[in-house]
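Sat 14:20. Reprocessing the chain from the morning session after the first attempt stalled halfway. Input below, unchanged.
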Amino acid sequence: MTDAFLQLVEVFKVNVCGIVTALIIGPLAIWVAERVGLVDIPGSAAHKQHAHQTPLAGGLAIAISAVILVTIFHLWKSPFAAILAAAAIIFAFGLWDDIKGLSVSPKLIGQILATILLISANVYVRILDDSFIPILGPWVVKILNWLITAFWLVGITNSVNLIDSMDGLAVGITKIAFAFFMIMALVAQQNSLAIFSAVFLGICLGLELYNTIPARLFLGDSGAQTLGFILAAVAILYTPHDLPQASSWFVPIMVLAVPIFDTTLVVVSRLRRHRPVFQGELTHTYHRLVAYGFAPNQAVLVIHMTSLFLSFLAFIALSLVPWQASLTFGLSVCTGIALIIYFECKSPRSS
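Finished this time. Tokens:
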């Protein structure tokens, strides 16, 4: 048997173990959340329209499952140990928010602390190099890369959290993203990254059973932010071999384009109406699709299929010459901008 086949078998095994672990840990996390009063109350905010109080157990399930699986598959090593340590900070602040309800500032402090930890472990974006702006010098270029890293990590963490506006929505999007990073890491022969991605793909697949309509648990800030942060970190580690940067730098952006689009839509909408950006409202992509007449499960499916399509498009772009790949990315961005304009100009009053 070839090494590629053996690696594929290993990744499949990790996926199955992830699913089984999450399925077992899910009810335990629900039980703990209910006992400590970690539940989401219907009507406690304008966007909380679920019918029954629901345990915010997703973060607990993800954290416990991840510790078990990372230990089983010997992933407590660099750079994954640094990612998990930084994600633990995100989880802690998210859990604090789920219990007490935090303002924006403490959440950002937690995300910045996690970002600093990850950068200090040498996990950061390297889009710019000395040849890009030679007059600035290596330290200035490194600092610029650090700033891009911070923007990426904080942005994706919050994007995944913001799009968690309906049962199964965020966990489905992260599932698709982890699946594509796993496949692309295998193609790039980044086997450890493929296994790490497979761990969280399995967790998402297992939790999806408890988080789909009607949900038995919600991800909460602790779950959605943790998944978003780990996804953003995995995207940084993904480095395709033998491909020009011009053909690959935007691949993670396209894989995560749906939460990026949704966050941009929400920010534009709230700024136009002079409302606080972080105030929960029914202005997300999901809410707009429902306002157009889609059933809740149909709206979720449309968003998931869009994420799947864009991920496939990103995968295809890897095989294109730089100008074709850039054109693909550019057309995707233009389509997103056009959709935002359409939603803002034509959306029903209820949004």
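Residues 90 and 144 are 23 Å apart (CA to CA).
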